[in-house]
Design brief:
Layout lengths: L1 H24 L3 H23 L6 H20 L5
Amino acid sequence: MSERIIVLLIVYSAIFLYDRSLLKRSSDKGEKAVYNILIIISLYLGVSYAGNLNFIWVYDLVDLTLTDTARAIDKWLTVPKP
């Protein structure tokens, strides 16, 4: 586990050192927002990887939130057989 944490620290340090100057020069709020969202998602996945944890994944999240709605739409669109 410590190897994974060290690798993640090295990777994120390199990312932040490289992107720090680029983000300071950029005045586009949308670009910064997208960058921050991607960093948050990658940190979430990195912590899950480093700790070998069973966090909820994107598929599970979509499954929990959209399954009932998708089934209702499917039932509504299904044509009964004559």
